[in-house]
Each structure stands twice: as C-alpha cells, then as structure tokens.
Amino acid sequence: MAADALARLAAFxxxxxxxxxxxxxFGAGLAMMAINTGFLYLFVDLAGASVALGTFxxxxxxxxxxxxxxxxxxxxxxxxTLRACLQYHVANAGAFAVWWATANLLTLLGMHYxxxxxxxxxxxxxxxxxxxxxxxxRRREGx
Length: 143
What we know:
The protein is an all-alpha fold. It has helices at residues 2-13, 16-46, 51-74, 82-108, 113-136.
C-alpha cells in the first residue's frame, strides 16, 4: 500500500502541470511556520494561555488556515467542505504520528534527537504530500 502510494506520487510529480501546485504546497508549508509562530505568541504571550494550551490552539488555528490556503490557493478550488476539512485533520494527525514515531525510533537507534527530528520531518512530509494530493484534493475522473 505504501509502495503504491509512493509510485502514484512519483508519477504525479512527473507531470509538469502538477509541479506548480507542488511548489505552492511547499511554499504554503514554509509560510505556515511563521504563521504558527505568530499564533503561538498570540495565545501564550498576549492571551496568557499556558504553553501546553497555547501550542494546542496554535496548532489547530494553523491547521485551519493551512486547510483554506491549500483548498483555495494550492488546489484552486471553491466551496470547501466539512468532509475535506475533517480529512485534512485526519491526515495531519497521521503525519504527526509518523513524525513522532520516526523521531523516537531513530533516537532509540542512536541518532541524535535533533537529527532524528529533522529526518522525521522528511517522513511526515511524504505522508502529508500523499494524503493531500492523492486523497483529500485528488483530481477525480470527470470532475
């Protein structure tokens, strides 16, 4: 199943028209790092939330903002649905689980935890890429 998804993703990347969407997707991801930091500052420093609550609120706010950026700008669609938003939340949870498991496994295997965290980002990015392009916002036949 994972090999099939990687093969489909590789075929997708080979289509020149898809590269623009991929560039937008990665650009949005980089911009979201700054936006998430702003949300975290807002919730912790300005609103006085604890770091635990502030990180949760910042993550949820960023997830919602990224969903709409992806829907409207990256994929050029209108009329976002609750179903797509819920799918995006599931995809984010899955990518987080992959990041967490990979970072911890690599650390247990002897890799420095910071390098393990960076390697884990690569793995979770692949999960996000696959779920975003091949599941949530996949191009449907006839649509």
